[in-house]
Write a structure and sequence with these properties.
The complex is a heterodimer. By secondary structure, chain A is mainly alpha-helical. Chain A has one domain: ABC transporter involved in vitamin B12 uptake, BtuC (Orthogonal Bundle). Helices cover 72% and strands 5% of the residues of chain A. Chain B is an alpha/beta fold. Chain B has 3 domains: 239 residues, Rossmann fold; 167 residues, P-loop containing nucleotide triphosphate hydrolases (Rossmann fold, 3-Layer(aba) Sandwich); 73 residues, no CATH class. Chain B is built from 17 helices and 22 strands. In chain B, the strands form 5 sheets. A 6-stranded mixed β-sheet of chain B has the order 6-7-8-3-9-10, sandwiched between helices. A 6-stranded mixed β-sheet of chain B has the order 16-19-20-13-21-22, with helices on both faces. Chain B has a 4-stranded antiparallel β-sheet with strand order 2-1-4-5, with helices on one face. In chain B, α4 packs across α5. The chains are: A mainly alpha, B alpha/beta. The structure holds adenosine-5'-triphosphate (ATP) and magnesium ion. Adenosine-5'-triphosphate binds next to β2, α1 and α14 of chain B.
């Protein structure tokens, strides 16, 4: 086993894994130049997460659907439908907590319904979810009477705009803005949390590495490993500082981080996750290996439904009302995010982190172009080109490294 | 003119992490049958892929000369222009098209752009006659056995005016009779002046047809023999391939068969998945004792695979009838999962479609059936998983740089070892292996026989479906002979000979 191939070899071998991060970095840098740094300001940085949260949540589910070799066209309509349900339930006065639970359960039921037709009746997912797309759009119109419904109280809106700032740890300084001296807060809490997160991450990374060395398995060279950890730590710290400079950690960000964390863990470390990849890689072989591929397909679509519920709540909160036309084209954004993030249309390949990166790449582009006052028409054009380029690049590097 | 049709000089081909070919030199005389031998992963298929343009000209170092001219192929299409044809280890026909469509696919001659189907059918009839395939050209390919599909591939090659024909393990999925036919065909083609390169792990076939033999080991040419001037024996070839003597082809057998019946099947019938009225297996009854190796022999299409797969949780067929008893208790499995939970294991003969997940790593493929065992509360213990995978890599001698390698990139024989590992890791009580040594070299075959022998020594039971009669005779305690969906009879160890098996398959009688 070769333990000590050189630093550059390791970088070369792993470059592909980071291509998404690098692409995102380049795009952010490009817009920073074009917008005089406005797009990386703390305020805009926070906004990017808030504005894209409902797509990113969908992308997490969508990439799993794509990994099992299916597609879900209904997510936009289902998000609209569950969003409307959430306001209706909320206005009935059950409180925010129960509103969220009920909405997610509603999404899970819708997902289970579609999953049943796909997994057990064996109607192609494309058709079932195309029907679902029409069905739930129609039902949304029916329950909203084709007019927006507004939540009665403001706490709904808080989900989208609320932040956790931890006022006790706040440093207030005077800074100059447009010639005037104004107060600006620096919230220490996000930085503290970032440091704790880094410490936990380092602990796990090192103990994992030591265990591997003890068992005599091959590991990446130490110099490479340390560089990798330092870069990740710095990135986490930057995110923390950005939040500290604006209004603290957005609640949406915490929700996103938890969702990403849970599903990354599931796909990477659990039996269920492994089954998802196996079913997508070759469903007949998976079946002969003793995997119940119907059950796996069913649950993946059910989870997708639940995440539509989450997305519905986020979008409703962001708009502060349930719109009958909410979620229009969300499915395409979520699908594009998955493919930009390296998922394969034939199934079996894809990662949660990749899909999130894909979603952020599109989000950053949208946001940057808006800041430059470029209209939506051009945003579509650029998004289309990014999608094509990203997937081409993925196939190209795969071929080059002999993976196809 | 040059006496060599093909010359390969200092060819080196490197995949990420693997040097598949290491300055190989190789010469083929015009009009000869040249056999290429070597262990699994020696680089035989890679060498042929380079020669035929599967790997483009700039992806390797060294030179390839055809008729003395250096080749510069970018795709397989270019090599076809030079009258070179390759038939790959894994068949590449279009399953839902007919025979004649497959034959002419990709090179239909037509001046106007409109296809003259009638002419194609007439042409294909001639070709089919030449290769000795007695079928209607309009038959859909997937409805024929692998042996016949193989002949269609050859007809396809002949339709292109081939001068140099490359066959990568053409007989690995054929039974003895079909193999013999194929070899005769190759000899026939030689008379017509077609040069042929054949890769095979079946040394008796190599001895039968080869004019010369080249042996590859670890990506290097070890030696070349001229069969007409030198006295070549199978032992010499084996020694060249594995680098040592092999005195035994089968391990010593000293396992005891217990008198307890562990599995009994009564009146088992299986119906075709698309034609639910067509019985593929009719009223099969057999039993398996604890600690026994049972072999199922018979020609292709006898229904052996169908029988085993339908027992293994209805993995084949629209429906089935009959009774299954495990340790005397009646069982009904609805899915392969039920069967696995109950202690059965099945290794498919079709490793590409049914055995492996090609895009996954060796490690993942090995652990897929045993994730429950490798995890706590649904969370996989990756260290344990890696350890198990590495153990199999070592014990079965799987040739791959690391267990993280994508299975697709392994050589055919090494892929087979991965499927076996997956099943072994699940530790079944009853181990059903369908053509376990297909495409595997002599050395590795011996290793696999040892594994089977070990299993029965531990009191497990093995059912081996095989088309290689010597293997059944060498390993099995009892042999069931099947033909046309029926079990024709059984033969005991010591009593079985190839003749008896064949007579029984045809007549149902011993002599
Ligand atoms: N695309 C690829 N990427 C990486 N490694 C490869 C690739 N193709 C083949 N190899 C490696 O090259 C070596 C030679 O493979 P090859 O298929 O030529 O073996 P072979 O002699 O045909 O074996 P077998 O008898 O098992 O078919 C093997 O170690 C294999 O793992
Ligand atoms: Mg090969």
């Amino acid at each position: 086993m070769n333990k000590s191939n050189s630093f550059t070899d390791a970088v070369k071998a792993n470059l592909r894994n980071y291509s998404m991060f690098i692409m995102l970095g380049i795009i952010m840098l490009g817009f920073a130049i074009l917008t005089n740094g406005v797009n990386v300001s703390s305020r805009n940085f926070t906004n990017i997460f808030v504005q894209n949260s409902y797509i990113l949540v969908l992308a997490v589910g969508m990439v799993m659907v794509i990994i099992i070799g299916n597609i879900d066209l209904s997510v936009g309509s289902v998000a609209a439908f569950t969003g409307a349900i959430s306001v209706i339930v909320y206005n009935a006065g059950v409180g925010m907590f129960f509103t969220i639970i009920i909405t997610i359960i509603c999404g899970l039921i819708i997902g289970a319904f579609q999953g049943y037709w796909i997994a057990y009746v064996k109607i192609p997912a494309f058709i079932v979810t195309l029907a679902g797309m029409l069905l739930f759009r129609g039902l949304t119109y029916i329950i909203t009477n084709v007019t927006p419904i507004t939540p009665k109280l403001d706490s709904f809106k808080q989900i989208a705009i609320g932040t956790i700032s931890g006022n006790i740890f706040t440093i207030t300084r005077m800074v100059e803005k447009r010639g005037k001296m104004v107060e600006q807060n620096f919230y220490l809490l996000p930085v503290i949390i970032a440091i704790i997160a880094i410490a936990i991450m380092l602990y796990f990374a090192f103990s994992e590495r030591n265990k591997k060395i003890k068992n005599d398995f091959s590991v990446k060279p130490l110099s490479y490993f340390i560089t990798e950890q330092v870069v990740i730590s710095v990135l986490i710290l930057i995110i923390g500082i950005q939040f500290a400079n604006y209004r603290g950690i957005p609640e949406v960000f915490i929700l996103l981080a938890i969702t990403i964390g849970i599903f990354t863990f599931i796909t990477k470390n659990t039996i269920f996750g492994r089954y998802i990849y196996a079913v997508g890689g070759n469903s007949r072989s998976a079946k002969l290996s003793g995997i119940n591929s119907e059950k796996v397909t069913f649950f993946v679509h059910m989870i997708m439904g639940g995440l539509c519920g989450v997305s519905g709540i986020l979008f409703t909160a962001y708009m502060n009302s349930a719109l009958p036309d909410a979620g229009n084209l969300f499915e395409l954004d979520a699908i594009a995010a998955s493919f930009i993030g390296g998922a394969s249309a034939s199934g079996g390949i894809g990662t949660i982190i990749g899909a999130i990166m894909g979603g952020l790449i599109m989000g950053v582009i949208n946001n940057g172009m808006s800041l430059m006052n470029i209209g939506a028409n051009w945003q579509y054009v650029v998004k289309a080109l990014v999608l094509l380029f990203a997937v081409w690049y993925d196939i190209y590097t795969r071929k080059k490294s002999g993976m196809v | 003119m040059n006496e060599y049709i093909l010359e390969v000089k200092n060819l080196t081909k490197i995949f990420p992490g693997v040097k598949a070919l290491d300055s190989v030199n190789f010469k083929i005389k015009k009009g000869e049958i040249h056999c290429l031998c070597g262990e699994n992963g020696a680089g035989k298929s890679t060498l042929m892929n380079v020669v035929s343009g599967v790997y483009p000209h700039d992806s390797y170092e060294g030179k390839v000369f055809l008729h003395g001219k250096e080749t510069n192929y970018k795709t397989v299409k270019d090599s076809e222009q030079d009258n070179l044809a390759i038939i790959h280890q894994e068949l590449a026909l279009s399953p839902y098209l007919s025979i004649y469509e497959n034959i002419f696919l990709g090179h239909i001659k037509s001046k106007t752009g409109i296809i003259n189907w009638k002419q194609l059918i007439i042409d294909s009839k001639k070709l089919l006659k030449k290769v000795g395939l007695n079928e209607n050209p309009e038959t859909i390919v997937s409805k024929m056995g692998v042996g016949k599909q193989q002949l269609v591939e050859i007809a396809r090659a002949l339709s292109k005016n081939v001068e140099l024909l490359i066959l990568d393990e053409p007989t690995s999925s054929l039974n003895d009779v079909e193999s013999e036919q194929l070899l005769q065909l190759i000899l026939e083609l030689k008379k017509e002046g077609i040069t042929c390169i054949m890769i095979s792990h079946k040394l008796n076939e190599v001895m039968e047809v080869a004019d010369s033999i080249t042996i590859l080991r670890d990506g290097q040419t070890i030696c070349s023999y001229d069969c007409h001037n030198e006295n070549i024996t199978e032992e010499i070839i084996i020694q060249g391939m594995v680098g040592r003597d092999m005195t035994h082809r089968y391990p010593e057998q000293d396992h005891k068969v217990s008198s307890d019946t562990i599995m009994e099947v009564k009146n088992w019938s299986v119906y075709h998945p698309e034609y639910p009225d067509l019985a593929v297996v009719k009223n099969a009854s057999f039993n398996l004792k604890k600690g026994e190796i049972l072999a199922f022999c018979g020609p292709m299409g006898a229904g052996r695979t169908e029988l085993m797969m339908s027992i293994f949780g209805k993995a084949y067929g629209s429906h089935c009838s009959g009774e299954l008893y495990i340790k005397g208790e009646k069982r009904e499995y609805h899915t392969p999962k039920d069967a696995i939970t109950d202690g059965l294991g099945y290794v498919s003969e079709d490793r590409k479609e049914l055995g492996l997940i090609l895009i996954q790593s060796v490690r993942q493929n090995i652990s897929n059936s045993s994730l429950k065992k490798l995890s706590k509360l649904g969370v996989i213990d990756k260290h344990k998983e890696l350890e198990e995978a590495n153990n199999f890599k070592k014990s079965l001698n799987i040739k791959t740089p690391t267990v993280e390698q994508t299975v697709k990139n392994l050589s055919g024989g090494n892929q087979q070892k991965v499927v076996l590992s997956r099943c072994l890791l699940a530790e079944p009580e009853i181990f059903i292996v369908d053509e376990p040594t297909r495409g595997i070299d002599v050395g590795a075959k011996y290793e696999i026989y040892c594994i089977l022998e070990d299993l029965v020594k531990q009191g497990k039971s093995v059912i081996m479906v095989t088309s290689e009669m010597p293997e059944a005779i060498g390993m099995a305690d009892r042999i069931y002979v099947m033909n046309e969906g029926k079990i024709k009879g059984q033969l005991l160890k010591g009593d079985a000979t190839q003749e008896k098996i064949m007579t029984m398959a045809l007549t149902g009688k011993k002599e």
